[in-house]
Specification:
Layout: H1 8-14, H2 19-66, H3 71-76, H4 80-95, E1 99-103, H5 127-130, E2 135-141, E3 144-154, E4 160-169, H6 170-178, H7 181-210, H8 215-231, E5 235-240, E6 245-248, H9 250-256, H10 274-280, E7 286-293, E8 296-304, E9 313-320, H11 325-347, H12 354-364, E10 372-378, H13 379-383, E11 395-404, E12 417-420, E13 428-431, H14 437-443, E14 446-447, H15 451-459, E15 462-472, E16 475-485, H16 493-530, E17 541-548, E18 555-564, E19 568-579, H17 581-599, H18 604-624, E20 633-641, E21 646-652, E22 658-660, E23 666-667, E24 673-674, E25 686-690, E26 696-700, H19 712-723, H20 730-741, E27 750-757, E28 765-770, H21 776-790, H22 797-814, E29 819-825, E30 829-835, H23 855-862, E31 865-870, E32 875-881
Parallel strand pairs: 21-24
Antiparallel strand pairs: 1-4, 2-3, 3-4, 5-6, 5-9, 7-8, 8-9, 10-11, 10-16, 11-12, 12-14, 13-15, 15-16, 17-27, 18-19, 19-20, 20-21, 21-25, 22-23, 22-26, 26-27, 28-29, 29-30, 30-32, 31-32
């Protein structure tokens, strides 16, 4: 039977709850009983026959030995034992008996298998033999329970010379009988196996015929079968392979008006309509085919029964659908509307885009509900704001979405302005048979309507319209209009209710998209306001940058370019965890902190360490305030030195930079990747590598190379492919990379920074070693003056000599050798004095009585900027002067 597990027949064969199981158990039990009885009978009969044979055998041996020649003389001799014992033992061995005993008239043994018993009196009733009568009896003797035959030994004169007793133990007799037990047991087993096999085959066949059911189940099934056939309100017929009616229930008899003796007759003889009769005997699979039977419409279903192992026949079911057709039509209509509402819930609001949500509303209504649909939204709603309705004025609606069955529809296209007076929140319906479309358009609340368009609408067959305001929280956001044309039924009251339900769902989606659009615009505005609008001027790098916010949500990606003293430039790229205003605000705080930390001119790994502490402190502060959001971030901080052409980089959970050499070769410098900011516990490591002049450094956030459906390794491979090849400017590189890697709607922010490196000409750099002697200052002044004169910077000589005099003097007095001086002529003139001491001088005001303390004050007056930076071997005090500008009189 269908649905039964594969081992169901086997279980039914051995289950006593089934008819087949009961028959099997009964047959096996009966056979076991018969086999056991037969085996017992065979054993008992065998032992009985063995005992009878033992009696006859012992009696025969005793008679033969008693009448053997020489036995009487031997008994009458002086030593009967010597003569008879050998003969008795020989007879015992040859005849396979247990004992041959000869005794005299007094019962004294002359022979015995056990010599110790010779000379002792016989045990048992031997007196009867002395009287001349032989006998065979079973009694317990010296050898145990035995079968003994005792016969007299007569003399020629008739007197008794003695007796002969021959015995066999019962155990020996039984052992002979038991030899047949294995044979009997084997025969019993074979008989049992044959009988079990036969019973199994019989039970299996019975199990198939009863389908593994028990007697109770079969009785209940028959009762239910009979009750269902008579009680069910659906006609059931079974037509055999011979085209005869095998079974018909009461409902089938009523629906087809069958005669009482219909069962067993050919279907063609039942007086049915020829089409109905041909269908019933066709043997095909039919589903809900409608046939007319008199005044009834019957839904007929035919299924063959042999598809699931049954006999070759056909089951026919009949339903009277005459009274259900009207109800079915309404149910189908309601089902279609429910499915359309379900589809609308699934399709409307899939994105947080106002225009897309409006288009989804128009698309879902076509063609299941209307032949055309339009959605008009107020301009403020499209921008993310709430519409403000002027008192008594018209709310400017703009056509946002159009969908129609015909491509040549006459409706206004997307972008057209359709005025609307928001005086109602309920739907309105207009039909051309009831009103004039040209005039009733204004009754709907529309303004700026073109009468020529209304005429084309009428000519093309649009005859019915439902207009539903899209409103939430009492505010009208727009208008949804549904049109029907041609042969479509006009909108009725149910259609109006459905349109309102559809518009209500869409309004929620539009309002959510409007709110998100506003928040997204605010976040983008905040994000862009916090990013650098204009990059600072510097000559070390030619920089191009791009920032693209995510299509849905703004993250905290940022970049920065920070000029550092000594013709060096810091490049920063970072990414804050999360999206929205919180991420943008956190990004602003981190960018400001990076600027502040960079003013101290630390190494990249030291700066990331300070930034890590700041992020951890922000997280702790926000956790105390109950804010679940964290301010974790990743960051890349690089310092490029235009003098040496080296770049030092440190990473905090950020993708490493990519370097493109002037010949188009792409390299990925090995930079240790630290933990993201805010985790703490591990120091950051910096790596330094040389960058050939004209190479491009590419810094980016993970949104460029990683997105849903593409892992980061694939993205990095695409980035390398986009960068390889011809030499391009940084601007061209940005455009090519974004075009190659980014989709139309990125799901994460992207910050991209491309910098082409430059190095200072050796003629722009001067460097001298200074002895730790105050007299060495004069030599420094002379060298500096000559170097400036050679480059046409005579006007800067006085201030530069003064600055270097003070800085070198401080280094000689308070610093530690070696001392060096370096001049850099880039955009400005930079003076650097280095020594191996870590003590930094401080600017202060000297009292009138102080002999020193005015050196740094003079440096600060003559230099545009000055400061101190620490190196691995000490410190560098630097100053920067603007070249070409008139000096102010500061003294």
């Amino acid at each position: 039977m269908a649905g039964r597990p594969p081992n169901r027949p086997l279980r039914a064969l051995f289950s006593v709850h089934t008819v087949a199981g009961q028959v099997f158990v009964f047959v096996i039990g009966l056979v076991l009983l018969l086999v056991a009885a037969g085996a017992v009978a065979l054993v008992v009969q065998g032992r009985r026959d063995s005992m009878a044979e033992a009696r006859a055998h012992t009696l025969s041996v005793a008679e033969t030995f008693a009448h053997s020649p020489g036995i009487v003389p031997a008994l009458d001799s002086k030593n009967p034992t010597a003569i008879l014992q050998p003969s008795a033992e020989e007879v015992r061995r040859r005849t396979h008996v247990e004992s041959v005993v000869v005794a005299g008239p007094q019962g004294i043994r002359y022979t015995h298998p056990d010599p110790a018993l010779i000379g002792k009196r016989l045990i048992g009733p031997y007196e009867e033999a002395l009287a001349g009568h032989g006998f065979t009896r079973t009694f317990t003797g010296s050898l145990g329970l035995s079968v003994n035959s005792v016969v007299p030994v007569p003399r020629p004169d008739g007197s008794i010379a003695g007796v002969v007793s021959v015995g066999v133990t019962v155990e020996s007799v039984n052992s002979v009988a038991d030899r047949s037990i294995p044979l009997s047991a084997g025969a019993a087993v074979v008989a049992l196996a044959l009988t079990t096999g036969g019973a199994a085959l019989l039970s299996r066949r019975l199990s198939r015929q009863t389908h593994g059911l028990g007697a109770t189940e079969m009785t209940r099934m028959y009762e239910h079968h009979d009750a269902v056939l008579h009680a069910v309100r659906e006609g059931v017929l079974i037509v055999g392979a011979d085209r005869r009616l095998t079974l018909a229930n009461d409902e089938a008899r009523r629906l087809l008006d069958l005669p009482p003796d219909a069962e067993g007759r050919a279907v063609a003889e039942l007086g049915l309509d020829p089409d109905t009769a041909d269908l019933l005997v066709s043997g095909c699979t039919v589903t809900d085919e409608v046939l007319r039977a008199g005044s009834r419409l019957l839904a007929v279903n035919l299924r063959p029964t042999d598809a699931h192992g049954g006999p070759p026949s056909t089951v026919v079911t009949l339903r009277d659908t005459t009274e259900l057709r009207a109800v079915t039509g309404k149910a189908e209509f309601a089902t279609e509307r429910l499915l359309l509402l379900y589809e609308a819930g699934a399709r409307i609001g899939t994105t947080l885009d106002v225009t897309r949500t409006a288009q989804e509303l128009a698309d879902v209504a076509i063609p299941g509900f209307a032949d055309a649909a339009t959605v008009d939204l107020a301009d403020p709603v499209r921008r993310g704001d709430e519409p403000v309705v002027p008192d008594g004025g018209t709310l400017e609606m703009r056509r946002t979405a159009v969908a129609a069955v015909r491509a040549d529809h006459p409706l206004y296209p997307v972008g057209h302005v359709v005025g609307f007076v928001p005086t109602r929140t309920r739907a309105m319906r207009v039909h051309s048979d009831d009103a004039d479309l040209k005039s009733d358009f204004e009754k709907l609340g529309w303004r700026n309507w073109d009468y020529d368009v209304a005429e084309r609408i009428r000519v093309q067959g649009f005859h019915s319209i439902v207009s539903v305001p899209l409103h939430t929280r009492g505010t009208v956001l727009g208008m949804a209009n549904f049109w029907r044309s041609g042969d479509s039924e006009p909108f009725d009251d149910d259609d109006v209710s459905f349109a309102e339900e559809l518009a209500a769902r869409a309004a929620v989606g539009v309002d959510n998209a409007r709110r998100y659009t506003r928040e997204h615009a605010l976040a983008v505005t905040l994000q862009r306001s916090l990013l650098p609008r204009v990059l600072p001027e510097q000559n070390a790098l030619e920089v191009a940058h791009r920032y693209l916010p995510a299509y849905e949500g703004v993250g905290g990606d940022w970049f920065d370019v920070i000029p550092l003293p000594g013709a060096r430039v810091a490049l920063v790229v970072g990414d804050v965890v999360g999206h929205g205003l919180h991420a943008a605000a956190t990004m602003g705080r981190l960018r400001t902190s990076v600027h502040n930390f960079s003013s101290l001119d630390p190494t990249p790994d030291e700066l990331l360490g300070h930034l890590d502490e700041l992020v951890a402190r922000i997280d702790r502060d926000e956790a105390k305030e109950g804010d679940p959001e964290i301010a974790g971030a990743t960051c890349l901080y690089a310092i490029y030195d235009a003098v040496s052409g080296n770049c030092a980089v440190a990473l905090a959970g950020h993708p490493a930079p990519v370097m493109v050499l002037p010949d188009g070769t792409v390299e990925c410098p090995a930079v240790p990747t630290g933990l993201p900011l805010g985790i703490g516990g591990m120091p950051f490591e910096a790596a330094e590598f040389h960058v050939p002049e004209g190479s491009r450094l590419v810094l980016y956030t993970d949104g460029l190379v990683e997105r849903r459906g593409r892992d980061i390794d694939t993205g990095l491979g695409l980035l390398r492919d986009a960068l390889a090849g011809r030499d391009r400017t940084p601007e061209e590189t940005c455009d090519d990379v974004l075009a190659e890697l980014l989709p139309d709607r990125p799901d994460d922010d992207v910050a991209l920074l491309v910098a082409r490196t430059r190095t200072l000409d050796p003629d722009q750099v001067a460097q001298w070693a200074v002895a730790t002697d105050p007299a060495a200052v004069a030599g420094v002044r002379k060298n500096v003056a000559q170097w400036l004169t050679d480059r046409g910077l005579e006007e800067e000589a006085f201030a530069t000599e003064l600055i270097l005099s003070e800085l070198v003097t401080n280094a000689v007095r308070y610093g530690t050798a070696p001392i060096g001086v370096r001049l850099l002529y880039d955009r400005n003139l930079i003076c650097e004095v280095s020594d191996s001491s870590s003590t930094s001088p401080h600017l202060r005001y000297a009292a009138t009585t102080d002999e020193g303390g005015r050196g740094l004050f003079l440096v600060a007056q003559f230099a545009e900027r000055w400061g101190t930076r620490y190196t691995e071997t000490g410190k560098v005090i630097w100053s920067e002067q603007t070249v070409g500008e008139p000096e102010e009189d500061t003294l």
